[in-house]
Amino acid sequence: MHKLADDLHQKLFNEEDARACKDIDGSACREVPGNFFRIIVSQGLTKIGDAVSNPKIVLPALLTAVGAPLALIGLLVPIREAGSLVPQLGIAGYVRQFAVRKWAWVAGSVIQGACILAMAIAALLLTGQVAGWSIIGLLVVFSLARGLCSVASKDVLGKTIPKPQRGRLNGWSSSLAGAVTIAAGVGLFSVSDQQHVWVYCALLAFGAVLWWIAAAFYSQVDEYEGATEGGANALTHALSKLRLLVDDRRLRHFVITRSLLLCSALSAPYYVLLASQHSQALAITTASFVAISGIASLLSAPFWGLFADRSSRQVMIMAAVVTALLGLVVVSISHWYPALFSLAWVLPGVYFVLTIAHEGVRLGRKTYIVNMAEGNQRTDYVSVSNTLIGFMLLFMGGVTAWLSQWGLMVVIAVLSALGLLGALMARALPEVER
Does the pLDDT value for residue 257 go beyond 50? Predict the structure, then answer.
């Protein structure tokens, strides 16, 4: 098996890339091929799990099917996203206690699978408000475990995979997940007009199994021991790391840039809403958008990953510009020729381009922060950045919700302007792949 991994890795990377291990431990370099495929499989499986428990599609449908209050549906995305980001300063202090941090990822993945399975059981046994709040409570725990995996994965990636290969690893795992997301979108067509609880529960149970299999694969990653300074008093150490935003100009610049690049994620629901206003079949529109997002990820993620290995900074710039220009085009169409939105291909095409841009933003900033930091610093950078971004996500989500009272185009125009600012900020960042 080790020989097979070596051969496949050699075919994927040229000899110069395969030997570029200056930034990781010498003994770890020998284990790169095996670790590369273990991490790809693990990340791919969890991304598929995310797709079949999508908080924008599957979980809202599940809450509707069990008769939960409509207000609870609005809590799903904020809890899922910000809930895994905001606590990461404290989580990082806990993770720092472990010299080998893959076990934090394994534990987080096991917990996520258990939470997803428990959601399915709650939906089968409970109804109404009780079922809804049970699922929301489990989602809180799920998000905390997701944050644990996020902190640990960046550090393990930095210790086991050399810089010239990290972007492609993220890209190919996203592409794998994109292929399955296409199938999920196609499958949703068959249940788009049904409210069978067991269908959604079966999807969640399948996702739970994927997380547990991913944990098994990740447990086999060969990771050497790292530093554990700061683990004794996790909370005090974590709070002290906020000082990094004052002392570390490069990290501060990156966090501001990443905050502006949230435009790609925050734009997506408004494009879906715009499509729903121009379609008579909302369920079919939603299912088609799921499939479209999978196709976009499948096709674009390997390109962005390869590009990020050369310059993750340039990836962020290009993806931010595409997001901004797309928004400006949509605003212009709405003002000058709104009838164009009624054409069947226009808004799906817009969402396809947006998803490609968002994939670039995501892969670019993930690769950049891993390559920017070294050693134990990487855990601090990731936790400080993610915690601040969690708060910014809540803040900007509230601002866009407030702006929406003046119409969708106002929100899209403002987010496009933020995207242009993000591209300018990214342009001033230093290169970290050299």
Answer: yes
